């Protein structure tokens, strides 16, 4: 029996050249050194469905395991702290 806990997975939906996206990703990379989670960055440009969903709100931080949006525009330290605890 495998007792390993699956790591939490976060996705940042954003676009290239977006300073808010770059700031959120950099902050999450720092947090990754202290907390155990996977991070994936997905560029929404070129994907019609993702562009429709997130176009005006990038970056969007999405918790894959819970299938829910955690925050957008800026990293909400209270929300991410509660999520990672």
From TrEMBL:
Organism (species): Nitrosomonas europaea (strain ATCC 19718 / CIP 103999 / KCTC 2705 / NBRC 14298)
Protein name per Swiss-Prot or TrEMBL: Putative thioredoxin
Transmembrane segments: none
Source organism phylogeny: Bacteria, Pseudomonadati, Pseudomonadota, Betaproteobacteria, Nitrosomonadales
Gene3D superfamilies to which the protein is assigned, alphabetical: Glutaredoxin
Database matches in InterPro entries: Glutaredoxin-like, Glutaredoxin-like_YDR286C, Thioredoxin-like_sf
């Amino acid at each position: 029996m495998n007792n390993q806990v699956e790591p939490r997975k976060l996705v940042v939906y954003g676009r290239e050249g977006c300073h808010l996206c770059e700031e959120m990703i950099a902050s999450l990379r720092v947090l990754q050194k202290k907390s155990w989670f996977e991070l994936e960055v997905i560029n929404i440009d070129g994907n019609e469905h993702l562009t429709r969903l997130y176009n005006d709100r990038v970056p969007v931080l999405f918790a894959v395991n819970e299938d829910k949006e955690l925050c957008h525009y800026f990293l909400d330290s209270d929300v991410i702290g509660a999520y990672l605890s």
